[in-house]
Amino acid sequence: MDSGVPQNAGYLIAAYILVPTILIAYAASLYRRSRRP
Amino acid sequence: MRELWRQAWTIARKDLTLEFRSRTAIVSALVFTALVLTVFNFGRDPTAVSTLDLAPSILWVTFTFAAMLALNRAFQLELENQALEGLLISPLDRRSLYWGKLLANLAFVVVVEAVGLPLFVLFFNVAVGHVLLPLLAVIALATVGFVAVGTLFSAMVVRTRFAELLLPVVLFPFLLLPLTYAVQATARLLAGRPLSEVVGWLRLLAAYDIVFVAVASWLFPYTVEE
Amino acid sequence: MTIAQKGRWLVITGLVLLGGVYVRALAFTPVERFQGPAQKIFYVHVPSAVTTELAVILLGLAGVFYLFLRDPRLDRFAESSAEVGTVFAGIVLTTGPIWGKPIWGTWWTWDARLTSTLFLFFLLMGYQVLRGAITDEGLRARYSAVLGICAVVLVGFIHLSVYLFPTLHPQPIVLKPSKPSLPPEMLLTLLLSFGVFLLLYTGFVMQRYAIATRRAEAFHG
Fold this sequence. Notes:
The complex is a heterotrimer of chains A (about 35), B (about 230) and C (about 220).
Chain A: H1 9-35
Chain B: H1 2-22, H2 24-42, H3 51-72, H4 76-79, H5 83-89, H6 94-124, H7 132-157, H8 163-190, H9 195-223
Helix pairs in contact in B: 1-6, 2-3, 2-6, 3-6, 3-7, 3-8, 6-7, 6-9, 7-8, 7-9, 8-9
Chain C: H1 3-27, H2 42-69, H3 72-104, H4 112-133, H5 137-164, H6 184-220
Helix pairs in contact in C: 1-6, 2-3, 2-4, 2-5, 2-6, 3-4, 3-5, 3-6, 4-5
């Protein structure tokens, strides 16, 4: 990898973890709400 | 068509007569406007920021508040003594109810702005004389934009709890657009930019008005069906 | 399978495929020369923004049909689309700053995409707050339709105004090419991601719709 490219992979990882977290959290919320009578 | 206007005018006159008979709302709105302008004046550091940079925003925030006040009371009048039902049973065309309310709200806001603008010029020492006509055009167009959508929404929220809280929340994005155009136009006018730079914003405002007055008047009957 | 179950399967499939998109984005798509790896946030950020807008447009359309047809199912769909749209708006508004910080140096920029998504977010908030304040179903459906239609007209107006008045900027916009001509590998990754997000949207809306239907039945039953 050439040294000219910025080393900001940390942000990428943060975002890539955040997105499925939000999606799974919402999916879980929907599942819980469908179980309630 | 003429019948529509006649009915609308009747409704507007009724509202305005009630309004100016009791005078509470208009006086409160005027005092509030003066208050807001005063707060803005004390809330800034004239050595740090030039008046001209802040002026457009101050003016428009003040006018937006004024419009909100007007809209909040728009349908309050009809809540008492089931006046709204009375209006609806009458052989009035529903659309004329919208136009009537729109006219009344516009009149209310224009009165507040007519006092607010000179106060603004006075407090902030802003020279508007040379751009008065285009400035009035901006104010007129933006006001129509606020009130057109606001009249529609106030008809809806009046039936909910927390109507006064709900109206700003729901109306906010629809205020933001004409507000942005108005601030851009006003900023350029006050900075002495050539009119050619302002015309585009005026056209946007006019387009917004045409579109939303049409949409709101089309949708209004759906809010008062019964 | 019930609608809810189908929806769940769609979401699970979507999540798995999202993993696939990740693999493709990380291993098989080139790193952007000037932005570095963080640019790859683009592949989740942009599809989320498009999905948010889609959610708003669909709820507005449902509103139009509702006013003519008065079918409560349309209203339940609109309600679902609004909630799901809010979730995707949340994704845009969180990934945006995470992308923005390393690239532009600030957490928030008033670029076209973030600004318009924030706008959509406020529209969706207002829509859901209005719904929450009305208990009568018919009234709520009617008023939501009215608001939804206004929202769609507003969105359309903003887009058209950018076309018709290209020299004006509605907000101070940091000039940033929102869609530079992408090399084909990047374009493919982006398109695949679009598909995944569409799948997720559909699955979520189906589940939310099922919840709304159950609530309505419980109310009347």
